Structures are given as C-alpha cells and as structure tokens.
C-alpha cells in the first residue's frame, strides 16, 4: 500500500513539539500515526520529528522519498 494513497506531498504548518508521522499508510489521521500499524506486521514504525519552532513542511504522501518523512519530489518520477 502506498503511503496515504496520495501522489503528492501533504503540506502543513507544524507547531513546536513532537510529531509522529505515519509510514505504513494505514492511519485514518494522515499524515499522523494513529497506531493502526500495531498488530498488522507492517514492519514499519512512525517517523518521530521534534520541532523547536513553527515551520511549514512537506510530508511525503507517496512513500518513495529518499528523505522520509519529507517529500523530495520522487512522486513526479512515477507520474506519466
């Protein structure tokens, strides 16, 4: 399953604090992990990121980025 079943990034403003980004694609709270991977044997765990200040981020929606959990434009390589 592709991460969130999306073809592009999720762009959002994050406030300071710890964030848990879903990497298994099973969450109902994209892009955040809601624990849906538990007991599913996905072999994936959330990416944990701590923000010290507010900032806008692009979270990968396709799961193909080499900079997970951030988008690097990899989704464009697969669109045609």
The pLDDT mean sits at: 86
- The unreliable regions are none
Strand content: 25-35%
**SSE pattern, N- to C-terminal:** EEEE
Biggest beta sheet summary: 2 strands, antiparallel
How many strand units?
4
Please tally the helical runs, counting DSSP H or I stretches of 4 or more residues.
0
Rg is: 12 Å
- Give the tally of structural domains: 1
Task: Determine the fraction of residues in helical runs and give it as a percent range.
Answer: under 10%
Based on secondary structure, the structural category is: mainly beta
For the biggest β-sheet, the strand order reads 1-4
Q: Label the overall shape.
A: globular
The first-to-last residue Cα distance is: 20 Å
Features:
80 residues, mainly beta, two-stranded antiparallel sheet, two-stranded antiparallel ribbon, 4 strands, 25% strand
Question: Care to give the gist of this entry?
Answer:
The chain has no helices and four strands. By secondary structure, it is mostly beta strands.
Structure description:
- The chain has 80 residues and is mainly β.
- Helix content is 0%, strand content 25%.
- It is built from no helices and four strands.
- 21% of the residues are buried.
